[in-house]
Structures are given as structure tokens and as C-alpha cells.
TrEMBL record:
The chain crosses the membrane at residues 310-333. This is histidine kinase. Residues 436-650 form the Histidine kinase domain. Its EC number is 2.7.13.3.
Length: 656
């Protein structure tokens, strides 16, 4: 429970200590976001300037070549010899600031046009100017010096896409072509500027963007770069002091966004060895492919430092305000907190059982003092009433305890009587049913037995071929009589005796399989029997048959007449005693784990409307009478496993 002082402090200081910093943080965060957006807007503007300058270079290059092709000087030079014409073109190349300029006859131009769309467009139409990527071989074919200038060793760069290449020998070219149709010169005039190592081009962009008129030099530490795919082929980014970072590569994140997805990157990015507010623009060649990037950006560190300084200043000022305000507030509030804390302490002592605790006189003469005095009066009344209630409660508790004890004893007697009545009623019903079943079964059995005897007497020696079958009928009639007797024995166990004999469990199992063959054969049941030497046990053969048949039939029904039934007989030790174990396991769903401890209870069944639920209960009773044990478990691989263990038969039992 929080104190009154704490709650009042929270109530008073929450707006100042929590809400104000939260609002301040939201305001600073909004300012920081706007500040970041302004930085991004600046770099976007810078990127547009660089893009416009590149577009201007392309336009100027195209216009220069097109103007040359349509000039009178070109028409005059068209009739010159080849050597003089090439010398004329070389002079014009230097005047126009081009890296190459050459003339292609119409046939050669048509062939070249299949590779370069700008040449193909100039054959039958207006001139075209695009950015194209020349392979090392293409550059050598134009000028070997250009091929050497374009060649760059690749420098391993952190966070770049892994590559096996060591050299970048391709060239990024501003490629222009225009049609020529003067007497003697029907074809295409082709020119271009190699942008690899074109430091004038990239430094001009940097000067335009970061040192334009009205901006002090050094206000923003900016850089500009031209990428051929992800390789810096022209840049003023410094790798070391005084050395440009040519041959370094852009990060994999930027490459994916700009070259793979065609986005314009406007965000912070790590450039060689520092973070920059960066803009990357994808460059498209004449075939519509993204072949490179134009980059401008400025160092992020000065702006981060400025933001950090603003944060420190704002929150330091707020902390100073708190340091001056909170002590003053606590001093003024002390006169209220002290009496309230005394009330709280007094109430705590009363809660702990010290009913004579009182607040006493307080110095405050305001409403708090009146509340303290009134509270002491109320505590006096509470103490008096508590004493009276305690005496009444002691007497009432004594009466309740006596009455509760009587009710508990009565309930226990009623519960025991109820259980006895339920079991008596069930057993009485079973007794009546058993008597009727025994009468109804014994009559047809007697008729069958009589007719079998008549068959023997009538056929005499002619009955020998079916003697085995007749003997089997006799045996089963005896078994029916035994089963009826066992049913009566379950209903009235005191009226019957049990006669044990030494039995080979494996032999009894074989007999039982013959009797239940009809159950196994009507389904898809695979039976697997495993036998090993086992001692004889002492039990009535009919009783053991009844147990085995019940377990086998239950297993078949559990598998829904389809599965594998495994029967194992062998020697087993239990509690230091030698005996024989019979294990019956199936591949059915197993026993419900919540009911596995009740499967041997009378009337328990999972086949409602089909059985009485006495089979396993009777089996448990018969095995227990033979000093044995029957148990059940669920196998890990699925299915139920019933185990019957019987102790080894003793010679003194046989003699008895």
C-alpha cells in the first residue's frame, strides 16, 4: 500500500516529472524527425542537381555531335580523303571535349546498330544519346588508351556483395550517334565520353552541389560518385589521405534497393569508412537495363553532433528546473505530510491488533487536525465493540464446531450406507439374473448332452471317426456348465468351493486359442505366440481358461477385429518368488489413462449396451484366489498390455 505522502507527491509531481519529460521527449522526437527529413530533403535536392548535370552533359554531347553532322564544315570535309577526314574528326573531337568520335558508313552502321540501340536509332531517324556500358574489348576497338583508363583493380569492401572478380575493365560511356546524309558520306557519326576516372565530371558535380554560390565552403562535407553497377569508377570519396576510393564497392543493401529493385535511395548509408546522408539514383542504359548509380551525399557526423548537443541542452535545462522546483515543493508540503503519516502509522498498529493505539494531539489546527481527533474517538468505539464481538464469536465458534462434527459423522455414515445399498442392489440383481441364466442354459445343454450320448449308443463303433468331435462337444458342454457355475459363484461366492490343480499355462493357452478361433478368424487378426520354459502353476484349469479367453476377446474387440495380438508365456520373478507370466498385448487404442485404475472394478465397461462389465473383475478375482496378480498398462508404441502372473505350484499343494 502506498503512503499518503507518496501519493500526494505522485499527484503533484507527476505532471512535472513524468508528463513534462514525456511531452518534451515527444517534441524533441518530432523535431529530430523533421530535422532528419530536412537532411533527406537536402540530399534529394542535391541528387536532382547531379542528375540534371548528367542530363546536361548528355544533351550537350548529343547536340554537339548532331550540330557537327549538319554543319557546312562537315559537308566540306566529307569529300576529303580518308586520312584527312579522320584528322578532321580528331580535331572536332578535341573541340567538343569527346573521348572518341568516328564515322560509320551505312552498312557498318546497320551492323553496329544491332548491338548499340543509339546507332540503330540514328540510321533512319534523329540522333540519340544514352549511357552505355562498353566491355574491355569494345574500348580497345575504339581506343586502347580508353581501355587502360577504364581499367580499375577492385578493392575488397566491407558489406559489399561477395565477388570473385579482381578487375573492372568495363567502361561507362555517354554514347551518342546522329545520322549523316551528305554526298559521299551516308551513314552515322558516333561520339562519346568515358565516365570512368572522369574526375572533372565528378568534381564539377561536387562543386555544383556543395560549393554553390551563397554557401560557405565546408558547410556540408559532401561527396559525389559514379558507379558502374556497384563499383566506384569515378568519385571524390577518399579511401586514404589524398587517394580516391576508385574500385571500392557499394554495400549489398544499397545495391539491392537501387540496382535490383530500381528504387532511388534517400537515407543514411555507410560510404567506405563513414556514415553519410546519401542519395543513390539508378542509371539506365540504352537497352533499358539498370547499369549503374549516381551518388551524392554529405557526412552525417556534424549533424549528429548538432542533434546530440541540442538534446543535452534541452534536457539539462529541464533537469535544472526540476532540481530547483522539487525541494521547494517538498518543504512546503511537509506540514501536510507529517500529520497524515502519523494517522497512517496509527492505523497500521490498529490493523496489527494494537487496538489501544491513538494518534494524539497534532500541531495542525486545520481540517487535518479535526480529522485526527475524530479518528481517535472512532478508535475508542471500535475497541469497545471489538471486545463485545470477541466474546460473542468465541461462543458461536464453539457451537458451530460441535454441530459441524456431528454433521460430518452423520454424512460419513450415510455415504457408507449408500455404497453398501448400491452394491447390494447390484449383486442382488446379478444373483437373480444368474439363476435365470443358469436355468435357461442348463436345459438346452442337458438336451445336447443327452443327444450326444444317444449318438454314441446308436452308432456304437461307427462313431469312432467322429469320436474326437464328440469328445470336444462333451468338453465344451462341461465348460458351459463350469462357466454357469462360475457365474453363480460370482453372485454367491460363499456357496462354492475352488479346486486347484497343477496347470501348464502354455497348454491351457493352446486350448483357449482353439475355443476362440471363431473370434480370430472372422477378423483380420494376426496372432503371434512366444513361448519359453515356465513352471507349472496351481489354479483351476477352467478358471484359467475363463481368464485367458476374456483377455483375448477383449483385445480383439479393442482392435476392432484388425491388428496384431501377441501372446507371451514364460518364467517370471516377482517379489523374490518364481512363477509364470502370461502377457496379452494388442495394437488397439489402449486404455484411457484417466480410467486405467478402474478397469478391474465391477460393471466397468467401454462397450455400453454390449457387456456387463464383469469380465475383468471376475478375472481379477480368479487370479487373486490363486495367489496371483493381474495388471494392465499402455505400451509406448500404442495398444494395451495385460499381464497375468501366477506363482509356481508347490508339491505340498498337490499332495493336499
Amino acid at each position: 500500500m502506498t503512503s499518503v505522502r507518496l501519493r500526494l507527491l505522485i499527484l503533484a509531481l507527476l505532471p512535472l516529472v513524468v508528463l513534462m519529460p514525456l511531452l518534451l521527449w515527444l517534441a524533441v522526437s518530432r523535431w529530430a524527425a523533421n530535422y532528419d527529413n530536412l537532411l533527406i530533403a537536402n540530399v534529394e535536392s542535391d541528387l536532382r542537381i547531379a542528375e540534371q548535370y548528367l542530363a546536361q552533359i548528355m544533351t550537350t554531347t548529343g547536340d554537339g555531335v548532331e550540330g557537327l553532322a549538319s554543319s557546312t564544315t562537315f559537308k566540306d570535309a566529307a569529300g576529303l580523303s580518308r586520312a584527312k577526314f579522320e584528322a578532321f574528326l580528331e580535331n572536332k573531337r578535341a573541340e567538343l571535349g569527346l573521348d572518341f568520335l568516328y564515322y560509320l558508313p551505312r552498312g557498318a552502321a546497320q551492323h553496329a546498330g544491332t548491338k548499340w540501340p543509339v546507332i540503330g536509332a540514328a540510321i533512319n531517324g534523329p540522333g540519340a544519346t544514352e549511357i552505355d556500358i562498353f566491355s574491355g574489348g569494345d574500348l580497345v576497338a575504339v581506343d586502347e588508351d580508353l581501355a587502360l583508363r577504364a581499367r580499375l583493380p577492385l578493392i575488397e569492401t566491407e558489406a559489399a556483395v561477395p565477388t570473385d572478380r579482381n578487375i573492372e575493365d568495363r567502361g561507362m560511356v555517354v554514347h551518342t550517334a546522329t545520322g549523316v546524309s551528305v554526298p559521299g558520306r551516308i551513314g552515322v557519326l558516333v561520339g562519346g565520353i568515358l565516365l570512368n576516372r572522369n574526375l572533372d565530371f565528378i568534381d564539377t558535380i561536387n562543386a555544383l552541389v556543395y560549393h554553390s554560390e551563397g554557401t560557405e565552403s565546408g558547410d556540408r562535407q559532401g561527396t559525389a560518385t559514379l558507379f558502374l553497377e556497384d563499383v566506384r569508377v569515378s568519385t571524390n570519396v577518399r579511401l586514404f589521405e589524398g587517394e580516391r576510393a576508385l574500385g571500392t564497392r557499394v554495400s549489398a543493401v544499397v545495391r539491392h534497393a537501387v540496382l535490383d529493385e530500381g528504387q532511388t535511395w534517400l537515407n543514411r548509408a555507410f560510404v567506405v569508412n563513414d556514415w553519410y546522408i546519401s542519395g543513390y539514383l539508378p542509371l539506365i542504359d540504352s537497352m533499358g537495363h539498370r547499369v549503374g548509380m549516381l551518388y551524392v551525399g554529405y557526412l552525417e557526423a556534424p549533424f549528429i553532433a548538432a542533434k546530440r548537443g541540442a538534446y543535452v541542452l534541452i534536457f539539462a535545462a529541464f533537469a535544472a528546473v526540476l532540481a530547483l522546483t522539487i525541494p521547494l515543493f517538498l518543504r512546503l508540503a511537509g506540514g501536510i505530510f507529517s500529520p497524515l503519516e502519523r494517522m497512517t502509522q496509527t492505523m497500521k498498529r490498529v490493523e496489527d491488533g494494537q487496538l489501544d493505539a491513538r494518534i494524539g494531539a497534532v500541531s495542525a489546527k486545520d481540517e487535518i487536525g479535526e480529522v485526527a481527533a475524530h479518528l481517535d474517538e472512532l478508535l475508542d468505539q471500535v475497541q469497545e465493540r471489538d471486545q463485545a464481538l470477541r466474546s460473542w464469536a468465541d461462543e458461536l465458534n464453539t457451537r458451530v464446531e460441535d454441530r459441524t462434527k456431528e454433521l460430518r459423522e452423520t454424512n460419513e455414515k450415510l455415504e457408507a450406507t449408500y455404497q453398501q445399498l448400491v452394491m447390494s442392489e447390484k449383486l442382488a440383481s446379478i444373483g437373480e439374473i444368474t439363476a435365470g441364466v443358469a436355468h435357461e442354459i442348463n436345459n438346452p445343454v442337458a438336451v445336447i448332452q443327452g443327444n450326444v450320448d444317444v449318438i454314441r449308443e446308436t452308432l456304437a463303433d461307427a462313431a469312432d471317426p467322429v469320436a474326437t468331435e464328440l469328445a470336444l462337444i462333451d468338453q465344451q458342454i462341461s465348460r458351459i456348465n463350469a462357466i454357469v457355475g462360475k457365474l453363480l459363484q460370482f453372485a454367491r461366492p460363499g456357496d462354492y468351493g475352488v479346486f486347484a490343480e497343477q496347470v501348464d499355462v502354455a497348454c491351457v493357452l493352446d486350448d483357449c486359442l482353439v475355443l476362440v478361433d471363431y473370434v480370430l478368424s472372422k477378423g483380420d487378426i494376426k496372432v503371434e505366440i512366444e513361448r519359453s520354459d515356465a513352471p507349472l502353476v496351481s489354479i483351476n484349469t477352467g478358471e484359467l481358461q475363463q481368464v485367458i479367453i476374456n483377455l483375448v476377446v477383449n483385445a480383439v474387440q479393442a482392435m476392432d477385429n484388425k491388428g496384431k495380438l501377441t501372446l507371451t508365456v514364460g518364467k517370471s520373478m516377482r517379489d523374490g518368488r518364481i512363477g509364470t507370466a502370461l502377457v496379452v498385448s494388442d495394437t488397439g487404442p489402449g486404455v484411457d489413462t484417466g480410467r486405467i485404475n478402474t478397469v478391474f472394478d465391477p460393471f466397468y465397461t467401454t462397450k455400453l449396451g454390449e457387456g456387463t462389465g464383469l469380465g475383468l473383475s471376475v478375472s481379477q478375482t480368479l487370479i487373486a484366489q490363486a495367489d496371483g496378480l493381474i495388471s494392465v498398462r499402455n505400451k509406448a508404441e500404442g495398444g494395451a498390455e495385460f499381464s497375468v502372473w501366477l506363482p509356481e505350484a508347490q508339491d505340498d499343494q498337490e499332495a493336499a
